[in-house]
Amino acid sequence: MDNYNLGSLSAAAQTQEIVSTVEQTLHFITYGAGTSFKHHSYFENLLESGVAAHLACDRTSDSISDRAAEEFGLLKELKVVLEKCDHHQLMLPPPSVVNKNKSQHKDSQRSNCNPKQSITSPQHDLGQDEEPCKNGNWTDCVRRQARLTMARKSVVPSPVLLDAGQALLEMCNQNETLTFEQALGREVLRLCKKIGEGTFGEVFRIKLKSKASAIKIVPIEGSFPVNGEEQKTAAEILPEAIICQELSALCQQKSHASCPNFIEVKRLYYIQDCYHRALLEQWDVYNAKRESENERPDFSKADQKFLMFEFADGGISLEDYEVKCATVAKSIFLQVACALAVAETALEFEHRDLHWGNILVAPTKRPSIRCHLPQGDFEMDTGGVLVSLIDYTLSRMCKGGAIIFTDVSKDKALFSGSGDYQFDIYRHMKQHNQNDWKSFRPYTNVLWLHYLSRKLLDKTYCVRSRQQSSTLAELRQWSDAVVLKCPSAKEVFLKCVNKQPL
Fold first, then answer.
1. Which pTM was predicted?
2. Could you list the active site residues?
3. 216 among annotated binding-site residues
4. 20 to 30 A Cα–Cα from 153, which one of 79, 138, 144, 434?
């Protein structure tokens, strides 16, 4: 690479060099599992401008114009930096001010989120020519000390730096932000209905092409708090979007570990708009019936940004669902255990916040569902319900060596709650992982399965038949003597499913 001289190439070779560099760059800036994450627009524009500059050269000579030389120089710099850096992650551009006193970690650098949504990578040892920047001059630092907030790292030279906003646009397949009406249409918005909420924002049910969907609207990038919490930045919301898409992909039967119990992500939208009046009207209807705990979202002006998730309609939360018999309770438990087992296997996944508000239950006509694990295929009776897991705000997963997790080690409020077994689970997780939220500890999933078994047993069932009585006793035996003795949700599932693989 040191002996490489762009100026010595012929015109045709110069063009080929642009094509080669762009293709190599696009090759590594990708995620797996069918989730495309390519910054096509930047590299295609760079290719187009470079070729145009080349064509503008004096065709009677083999020299290149000043503009072409500048483009080729940028590409050369890009190629040098990429070859010197680990090509298995994607980094954000650096902050404007570097805290020189903050310690730097070779294997992990975290964003300053609140809570700290983090993505870390396999350890990468710096060579002698790759020392961290010591003088705060980012343009002179080959290995830029950017905070990891996406699943892979790419150090791209100034002046063109990848940013989280651009990353969200790419994930949403958008060239620019949309308004609510541009995204959904006026008629769809007019017929929407609010169905849920959280500190993150609001959830509405809509109908698109006669099919019901749920949209989760999260305000981001704002400078003021919403519902008592600081708005997430684009960098902080990006990991949740990645996890949603990865888990949605596990519903595909082609995966080596799969099941139908993760909510399908239909689409993501990057919105910039004031809160639509139709959404506000439905917020008022919901508030009149249930007294919302959120602030009315009329705070936003036209420059407010949102990330809007469109999910398949997964039903209602287990907290609000009336479980009528022990057979249904057993099916719910096994479906949740199966989902966690599949995600543990495929993605080293921990949910870490699986209270019964994050378990959706919907009626189904399917008599059974099938899940696939390395141990084989398993078929389970549905009991007439299909379960879906949602809300991965605190979740942890690993994909291609890149770890996505939420660092709650300093979140005192999370571990100080009382009044429900749910709050004990947060403390049990912290005790088990010794407040290390980066490492994979599947026993946290076990703790939430025990919580679920307790919640299901607290419900009142009609047990007039011997079968229902036997099923309820089986569920109680799992809760009392099986669940907490297993090291992972997969072990819980294999012990409780009580069937040989197909």
1. 0.68
2. 353
3. yes
4. 434
